[in-house]
């Protein structure tokens, strides 16, 4: 298998590896158990994202705010917004993730300028909470798109893109009803966190110190630790190790690299230390994880 690649642009936002190269669309079913500590790494990207919970509960962080989601609920996360999901009470949660680049809605420039750009640029809309009662039509569109992906009929991508226009119409209409609500301007701490998280994701293979991370956020080491603790409930080094473990888990699943090579590729200089951290986070050794023997 090809080696998994983690790409970052010069301004350090994440590049998504889509389902089909050349079509900026990602539709998957996920489980929080697949992430170390039942916590997805904090990240941001140009794509917009919809999460819908099929089972369980999830807490969601968006630009410094924490949102509680239950089964049958979801969230829309706007472009270039810091976010991640994590387990409520350390329980598993299964969900649908629908993610696409706004350029998919740009076949007509006038339509894009009138209906898409205003939502992307609206600071009141870093996220929208979704549920079957208030936003049932949006939820229905997400589930329909998931069914299209599962069935993969002939030319299903065209069918999905058509459904995305219908979905966006509902999102645009919903945001248009938010006139007068306060703008969600990221705080200085969130802005610093964005820089530090992006730095970690770009340089995770390298030997990084707390000072390296703090320098990227233009803060002292103490302030760096306070920001990570307040925003992510993790220390900077815990976040770094969690991200490294997340990448290593994908390499275990999708490549034939040896465990030793994976440890080195992800920034762990000692196999024993990597194995110990992996077992603590996933409840099994790297080799057991590769064989599907997770607890």
Task: Compile the SSE list and pairings.
Blueprint: E1 25-31, E2 48-56, E3 58-62, E4 65-69, E5 73-77, E6 83-87, E7 93-100, H1 109-120, E8 127-131, H2 136-151, H3 156-176, H4 188-203, H5 210-216, H6 221-232, H7 236-254, H8 259-265, H9 271-282, H10 286-290
List SSEs in N-to-C order: EEEEEEEHEHHHHHHHHH
Question: Which architecture of the largest domain would the CATH scheme give at its second level?
Answer: Sandwich
Strand order of the largest sheet: 1-7-2-5-8
Number of helices: 10
**Intertermini distance:** 26 Å
* Low-pLDDT residue spans: 1-6, 8-12
| Sheet having the most strands | 5 strands, antiparallel
Please, what is the oligomeric state? Answer: single chain
Description of the molecule:
With 295 residues, the protein is α+β, with helices and mostly antiparallel strands. The protein has two domains: 25-177, Jelly Rolls (Sandwich), CATH 2.60.120; 188-291, Homeodomain-like (Arc Repressor Mutant, subunit A). Helix content is 43%, strand content 17%. The protein is built from ten helices and eight strands. The protein has helices at 109-120, 136-151, 156-176, 188-203, 210-216, 221-232, 236-254, 259-265, 271-282, 286-290; strands spanning 25-31, 48-56, 58-62, 65-69, 73-77, 83-87, 93-100, 127-131. The strands form two sheets. A five-stranded antiparallel beta sheet has the order 1-7-2-5-8, with helices on one face. Strands 4-3-6 form a three-stranded antiparallel beta sheet, with no helix packed on it. Strand 3 and strand 4 form a beta hairpin. Residues 1-6 and 8-12 have low confidence and may be disordered. It comes from Hungatella hathewayi WAL-18680. One of its GO terms (molecular function) is sequence-specific DNA binding.
């Amino acid at each position: 298998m090809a080696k998994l690649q983690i790409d970052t642009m010069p301004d350090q936002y994440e590049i998504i590896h889509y389902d089909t190269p050349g079509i900026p669309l990602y539709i998957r079913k996920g489980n929080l158990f697949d992430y170390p500590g039942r916590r997805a790494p904090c990240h941001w990207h140009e794509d917009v994202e919809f999460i819908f919970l099929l089972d369980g509960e999830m807490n969601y962080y968006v630009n410094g705010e924490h949102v509680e989601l239950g089964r049958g609920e979801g969230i829309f996360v706007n472009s270039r917004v810091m976010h991640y999901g994590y387990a409520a009470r350390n329980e598993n949660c299964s969900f649908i993730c629908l993610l696409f680049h706004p350029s998919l809605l740009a076949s007509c420039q006038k339509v894009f300028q009138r209906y898409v750009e205003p939502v992307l640029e609206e600071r009141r809309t870093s996220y929208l909470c979704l549920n079957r009662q208030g936003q049932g039509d949006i939820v229905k569109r997400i589930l329909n798109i998931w069914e299209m992906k599962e069935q993969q009929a002939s030319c299903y991508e065209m069918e999905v893109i058509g459904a995305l226009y219908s979905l966006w119409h509902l999102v645009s209409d919903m945001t248009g009803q938010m006139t007068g609500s306060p703008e969600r301007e990221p705080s200085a701490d969130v802005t610093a966190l964005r820089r530090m998280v992006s730095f970690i994701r770009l340089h995770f293979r390298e030997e990084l110190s707390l000072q390296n991370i703090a320098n990227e956020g233009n803060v002292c080491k103490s302030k760096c630790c306070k920001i990570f603790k307040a925003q992510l409930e993790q220390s900077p080094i815990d976040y770094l190790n969690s991200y490294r473990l997340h990448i290593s888990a994908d390499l275990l699943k999708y490549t034939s690299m040896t465990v030793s090579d994976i440890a080195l590729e992800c920034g762990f200089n000692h196999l024993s230390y990597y194995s110990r951290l992996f077992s603590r986070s996933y409840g099994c050794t790297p080799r057991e994880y590769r064989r599907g023997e997770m607890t």
